[in-house]
């Protein structure tokens, strides 16, 4: 306590001229003000707490797969993959003696093309980017192989079962086919075959009007 002097002491002391304003608390959920101004707990409806229970078993459908464009594009990708595997097999068998270290690669590629064709026929959308990547790699290999087949027409080279010029032409067709595989795979990927819609046929049957 300060000493008393000429200035008279203030009975209530000093206080802030601009006191801080406290935030107003939010209104409690599930409560109602009573007549006395106090908040009382409001009973919550039992229906609001119940989980939704559906009748029967849920059926999952893929609406994008039913579209004619999706079915046509799936068929295109499958056919292109089968043609690619057949063409690689013809080039591998026809140029077996000249392929050297590419023989295992070609055999694996034939198997992958057929395997991916099976997955696409089963609506496996996830393999489409892989198919496009492998087709790009095969296209690069084909572009590198075309000059090699053309150069083997010269004197002194051992000719494979098929002529080198024919193998070069088949390789050029294979490169063009890989380009089509890339375009078709990317277009099919944008069709979103994996979209699922869930519904309950038992409930839909109850909602039908009488006599329908």
How much of the polypeptide forms β-strand, as a percent range?
5-15%
| pLDDT averaged residue by residue | 78
Number of helices: 7
Helix content: 40-55%
User: How far do the termini sit from each other?
Assistant: 93 Å
Coarse shape: elongated
Please mark out the parts with pLDDT under 50 across 5 or more consecutive residues, or reply none: 206-212
Radius of gyration: 38 Å
Explained architecture:
The chain contains seven helices and four strands, in the order E-E-H-E-H-H-H-H-H-E-H. The C terminus is likely disordered. The strands form two sheets. Strands 1-2 form a two-stranded antiparallel ribbon. Helix content is 52%, strand content 6%. By secondary structure, the protein is mainly α. Helix 2 packs antiparallel against helix 6 and helix 5 runs antiparallel to helix 6. It has a domain of 123 residues.
Summarize the structure.
Helices cover 52% and strands 6% of the residues. By secondary structure, it is mainly α.
């Amino acid at each position: 306590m300060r000493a008393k002097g000429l200035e008279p002491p203030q009975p209530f002391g000093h206080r802030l001229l601009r006191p801080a304003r406290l935030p107003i608390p939010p209104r409690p959920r599930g409560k109602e003000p009573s007549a006395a101004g106090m908040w009382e707990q409001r009973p919550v409806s039992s229906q609001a707490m119940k989980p939704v229970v559906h009748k029967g078993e849920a059926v999952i459908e893929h609406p994008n797969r039913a579209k004619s464009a999706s079915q046509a594009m799936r068929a295109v990708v499958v056919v292109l993959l089968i043609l690619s595997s057949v063409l690689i097999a013809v080039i591998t068998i026809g140029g077996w003696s000249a392929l050297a270290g590419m023989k295992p690669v070609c055999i694996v590629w034939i198997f992958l093309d057929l395997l991916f064709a099976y997955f696409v026929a089963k609506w496996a959308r996830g393999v489409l980017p892989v198919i496009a990547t492998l087709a790009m790699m095969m296209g690069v290999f084909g572009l590198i192989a075309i000059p090699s087949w053309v150069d083997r027409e010269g004197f002194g080279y051992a000719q494979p079962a098929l002529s080198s010029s024919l193998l070069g032409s088949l390789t050029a067709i294979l490169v063009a086919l890989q380009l089509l595989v890339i375009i078709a795979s990317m277009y099919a990927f944008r069709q979103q075959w994996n979209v699922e819609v869930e519904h309950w046929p038992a409930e839909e049957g109850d909602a039908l009007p009488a006599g329908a």
